[in-house]
Amino acid sequence: MKLRIFLSIFSFLMLAAHFSRIDNTILMIISLLIPLLFFYKKAISLIIIQVLAYLAASVWIFAMFDYIQKRIDANDSWTVLFIIMTTIALFSSFSGYLLNSSKMKEKYK
After folding, report:
1. Structural domains of the chain, count
2. What is the DSSP string of the chain?
3. pLDDT tens digits for 39-78?
């Protein structure tokens, strides 16, 4: 269970770093505060974290398309960028999926 929580926290830390890179301080702070919901031991907090993890994956996908377009416009290679951003998006969605286990649901009733 601790690994599942750690992976989710790491996912939101990466998202906060992304928002920091694009100078969006408000979303960066929100991304850093989301894991605090793990301290609220109710099912709704787990659901909120899961939904936000899936939304984080969509943020990575949209950012990937934007960055790839910029690379194409500059005639730069974009395949490594595609692989990295897709991996991060999959990691974010997988961290949300891992919170759907029976042990997590048992702990967050």
Report:
1. 1
2. -HHHHHHHHHHHHHHHHHHHHTT-HHHHHHHHHGGGGGGS-SHHHHHHHHHHHHHHHHHHHHHHHHHHHHHHHTT---HHHHHHHHHHHHHHHHHHHHTTSHHHHHH--
3. 999 999 999 999 999 999 999 999 999 999 999 999 999 9
pLDDT tens-place string over residues 73-92: 999 999 999 999 999 999 99
Domain residues for the domain of 73 are 2-107
Enumerate residues 6+ apart whose C-beta is below 8 A from 20: 28
- Give the residue carrying structure tokens 């759907």: 100
pTM of the model: 0.91
| Both structure tokens of 98 | 């891992």
